[in-house]
Design goal:
By secondary structure, this protein is of the alpha/beta class. The chain is built from 15 helices and 17 strands. The longest helix is centred in the last third of the chain and has 31 residues. It binds iron/sulfur cluster (SF4). The site of iron/sulfur cluster has 12 residues, from helix 13.
Length: 430
Amino acid sequence: MSKAKSTVALAKGDDIQANVTRVFDLMGGVQNVIRKGTTVVLKPNAGHAEPPETSVCTNPEVVRAVIREVKKAEPKKIIVAEAAAIGCDTMECFKVSGIQAVAEEEGVELADIKRDKDLVKVAVRGFRSNIDSVKLPRFLLEADHLINLPILKAHASMVFSGALKNIKGVVQDKVHMDMHKQNLTMAMMDVWSVCRADINIMDAHRAASGYSPHMPVPIDTHMILGSKDPVAIDRVACEVTGIDTSAVDYFKVAEETGLGNYDMDQIEVVGEKIEDCFYKMWIPYIGDMSTRWPEYDVRCKGGCSSCQALLAINMEELKAVGAYDENAGMTVVIGGLNEIPEDIPDEKIVLHGNCTKKYLKQHPGAYHILGCPPNEPALYLTIQRHETIDGTGDQEDEIIRPCMARDAQVWKDYVFKKFEEYKKENTEVK
Ligand code: SF4
């Protein structure tokens, strides 16, 4: 039996409200997709305390436009809910991102999932990671509609972030940490299986290219996408921004789990045409990683796209902080299909990710960074400091965050310089 096609609505233009309204209209009209008298939860990406101009969080004006559109359907209640990234305060993120002000002005409720005490344990049937149950807020499970509101951005641990990744932010820190200790892609799919958004509206007004999420380069893409299918909307977002989807592993997993359609033959794009909206994003997480840093011995056979992306950000960050040359000659290993010669001294080897643990038999003194994928800056900090940094124990608070704050400006200058170089080489990039 052939699968039903998915529809993705695509709108382009400077007016955010007009784009959001158009997308809802293309999906059948807001009165038809949202039932009158219901409770509607909006889940933006407000994972970090960053202002709107950085494009780290969903643009508050997109949140406002969706609230105003949903109000036309006369819901009983609208709640904007989020659980910010590990170590981040959700309410602070709402405030700095501009979403709190929008919620107050529009008269809708804000909910911090991290602080919610009324949790319901939900079994994950047929779980693919080792998460067999998830505790979720009752209000989220009992909501009539969940609207996923991701921002389109390059992402160091997933290549890019869109609808599929944004639902990861409905869990509290403990589950979030467990997800990062194992296969994050599988864990994300497990969360989707118990908390499925029925509508996805993607903020691609100013998408974040570059070394996002922590060092984004916002670009004026001026698009809004909408779909009931999270896989299809992410696929179309990639098509319209020139992201090579064969380099994004989680599409395969998402399709296998039956979450939605990946194949463009199974997706109908309505509204604007992809070719009329095309805007090439700078995503430095894609390409051949084995030869990109010839001063290092990089072995990445069997590495997932997540670890390849992390390799890219960390090797460039080593350059930015001036620690690249002095550590040249080190061997960096990602993925489980590599050969590591016996004669490489253990102290010259960094094993990145859970699946490289097996090489410790042969090289017990190598640095082994835990995580699947590991913490974003773990690799460059391990190489720079000559000690294993993976966020275990107190490292997150005592080493990782202070080092990221220390290196932020030099890294920012480096990234924006690289973007200018990239634009000169790729004239279609604006
Ligand atoms: S640790 Fe291994 S399995 Fe996990 S994301 Fe990295 S390469 Fe993939």
